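User: Sequence recovery, please. Input:
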């Protein structure tokens, strides 16, 4: 099932629930369209090799990207920081995914992010622009936004989201793993969607963790790859701070489980990260790692 079909299925389910007098997605609805909770982890290789191993273990890129698909990749490119400072996704992780999508016959591969620092600076300093273009992808800032309703949103009822993201056949989320100085505590895959809305300030002005869970109930990636090749342990999200070289890349379709796993790499108990727990309660994934199959490749 590609992302457009997923959204249609989820929306149809939401309508049915609302008719029954409910306003939020239930775990039962999501389970019908969600794979078993398992994540794949590669260690101690180069960023490119680890990314390739994880995707191969997941069944290969062809499981997610079909010939002619329009692919949109959302890394974290928010900050004017170099790769070794661990504030943005590692460029070689992004480039590897772009290259694999190209080999699968994607009709277009767009890499984009709504950045915090000026995009024309962050795209270059992060190393991601050069890496994406070398791999055959297109990197660009969001040009047009479209306002959409968030059907199961509790606080975030609507959002302006880049049209490229909304119109993608395949959406791939590639966050970096780092701490966050706000109430969110961590920024991994779910918080990375704050770079997919025009007004991220709304999250901070209201209920940050609930808004993160709300947007994650709407933006459902086909694949999530988390970059823990090196992680930012202090002064996140921008740094500079303490960087630890962990040489890990993990991936899967359960982004809640991946965020829980990423939190443990930062020394943070996932049960103490509110948006991870809200996402579990919404039925978006599994946060209890004892119930997640973690497969090392």
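Assistant: Recovered sequence (297 residues):
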């Amino acid at each position: 099932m590609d992302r457009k079909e997923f959204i249609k299925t989820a929306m149809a389910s939401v309508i049915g629930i609302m008719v029954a007098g409910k306003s939020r997605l239930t775990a039962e609805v999501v389970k019908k369209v969600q794979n078993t909770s398992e994540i794949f982890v590669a260690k101690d290789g180069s960023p490119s090799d680890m990314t390739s191993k994880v995707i191969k273990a997941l069944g290969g890129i062809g499981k997610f990207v079909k010939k002619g698909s329009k692919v949109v990749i959302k890394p974290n490119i928010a900050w004017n920081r170099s790769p070794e400072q661990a504030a943005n996704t590692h460029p070689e992780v992004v480039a590897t995914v772009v290259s694999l999508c190209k080999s699968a016959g994607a009709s277009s591969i767009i890499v984009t992010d709504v950045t915090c620092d000026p995009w024309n600076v962050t795209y270059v300093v992060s190393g991601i622009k050069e890496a994406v273009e070398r791999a055959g992808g297109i990197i660009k800032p969001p040009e047009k936004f479209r306002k959409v309703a968030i059907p199961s949103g509790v606080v975030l009822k609507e959002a302006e989201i880049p049209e490229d993201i909304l119109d993608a056949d395949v959406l791939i989320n590639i966050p970096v793993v780092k701490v966050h100085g706000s109430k969110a505590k961590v920024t991994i895959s779910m918080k990375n969607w704050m770079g997919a809305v025009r007004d991220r300030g709304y999250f901070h002005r209201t209920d940050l963790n609930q808004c993160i869970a709300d947007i994650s109930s709407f933006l459902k990636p086909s694949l999530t790859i988390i970059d823990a090749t090196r992680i930012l342990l202090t002064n996140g999200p921008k740094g500079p701070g303490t960087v630890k070289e962990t040489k890990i890349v993990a991936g899967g379709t359960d982004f809640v489980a991946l965020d829980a796993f990423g939190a443990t790499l930062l020394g943070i108990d996932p049960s103490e990260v509110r948006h991870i727990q809200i996402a579990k309660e919404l039925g978006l994934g599994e946060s209890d790692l004892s119930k997640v199959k973690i497969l090392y490749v």
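The longest strand covers residues 223-232.
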